User: Fold these one by one.
Assistant:
Number 1:
Amino acid sequence: MKNLVVANLLGLLLLLATGLSHAEGVGVITHLSGVLQVKHADGSSKLLAIKSDVQQGDTLQTEKDTFARIKFIDNGEIVLRPETTFKVETYAYSELGKDQDNVVVSLLRGGLRSVTGLLGKRNPNRYKMDTPVATIGIRGTHFGALLCNNDCSNIPTISGKAPDNGLHTDTAQGSTIISNAKGTIEIPAGSFSYTADAGSPPKLVPPSQGVQVTMPQSISSNKDKGQGMGDNKGDSCAVH
């Protein structure tokens, strides 16, 4: 009987420890202007604030006029633009070694800028960003991504026409790898890509047609490092 009680107690402690590890934060909100909602993996929802933790399995959603910046455990950073839905599928990083490195995030709606952290530098093959159209891989990268689905009418373009539906990316540093079932291309620094849908191959586009995701200076600036993430005092996206 005593052994059974001990075994039950050990099992309960193990379940508690597992629950705590699952709830451990993998990032923190460092900048926020507006309303940011999170839906946790257990289905519960709440509003986040500056210094709120971000956990594995979290789906973040920014409201209209809301920008949010997240700093992850490997010092990688992502800025979400308004009306964006972003999910942290997995974020595993250890200072002890790269064997457990694994980052999978998803851009489900809207747009963002991303600067990859230490994981992206030492183990870039273990990072990917999924979208409904294509997957974005990295090579030590700073990039922007915008996913349009009849909701980009406010994005300015040279022609005056809203960006086409699909995935638009711009690469500021390093390179990105855009891939889906129809093809894979590498986007070098200073270049742009467009993927119409999951059934169309990704393609490079000239700068005159490329869409660059930019952010307000109050969100994009990084005072301690003296650099920004595509900061812009005007529109949150621009065509070059």
Number 2:
Amino acid sequence: MHTYMDYTIATYCVAIGFALTLGEIGPSSEEYPNFTTQLFQDNGPSVAFAMGGGLALCLGNISMQYSLAFVGISLTEVVSASLAVVVGTSVNYVLDGGMNCAVILFPGVACFLVAVVLGSFCHASNAADITLKLNSKQIVPYRSEDVEETTMNVDFTDCVNAKLLNKQCFTEGIAQVEEGKGSCSSEEWGLETAEAAVGSAEFLQNLEDHRAIKIKGRSVGFGLGIALFSGGCYALFSPLFNLATNDQFHLLKPNVPHLVVYTTFFYFSTSFFICAMVINIYLLYHPLVDIPKSSLRVYLRDWKGRDLAVLAGLVCGFGNGFQFMGGQAAGYAAADAVQALPLVGTLWGILLFGEYHKSSQRTYTLLSAMLIMFGIAVTLLIASSRQRD
């Protein structure tokens, strides 16, 4: 929750920056008004569509986090990404009057769906590999000569596990034997710790222990419902933005110019910001699924990981802005190529987090096929674009 609030603020700052810079370039005219001029125009229907898009994206983001916890990334990707691409791209194609080349666009959508399914099998295979590693993990040995030098007969069997010698466990074990005589740390016993190798059972167990949301034994059906809701939200935000900028339903009054993309992005992000802050402030005090309770005071004092959260928000803000600019220029159906985010996310997982390190040959084969299909899908979606009249 803390992270998402930092992320939201950074994203909103990007939208304001777009509006006050690119939205103010050049003289304001009746046909192409600048940002500040449009703030006072009678463009309520377009503003409503823009804010509806921001609301949809925010709800999609939040619900997806819980869907991942309930049913895992494999099922969540298949459901949410499939709905987002098939429904979102198809609706945008209709709204744009078929300006994208359908012969290229829809084969690209099909390739994306194949890639998503392959990604689901890949993640499932990798999860099986991880389970196998955790079930077959070896006990980390301690230095017996250090223990022999002591006069206490301490049983460390339960303390030495695959997580690199838990310091607290040693301390508690010693305190139980010599109650009232203080405690020793693992360093004082001469016990050494080392960083777990990427892909090892210890490394994977450490990742699992640091997950923010841990859910076991919960309803898969409920999680699937959340994934469907998330996918529906992702499928709506881009078409709603399209309607806000192009007024395909002709709801604006005569002689009222359409919202420029920078103004639309501002309203879109304002709605996103309000929704995200309201929901997350509520969840600070009324957390779900056994997440620890927090408060605004705790949030303001929590600087751990804030730099990364802000960076993520900046990257997402610029990504959204450029997506909408590209959609306005060459069609929002083609701009939905950014829905290939699983491709980028998977590459980050491979290069930075070592998620597939030492996986099985089957996992590597599925991973390669998924990346190839994502690459083809993105290429076709981009190739289907045409210049808007």
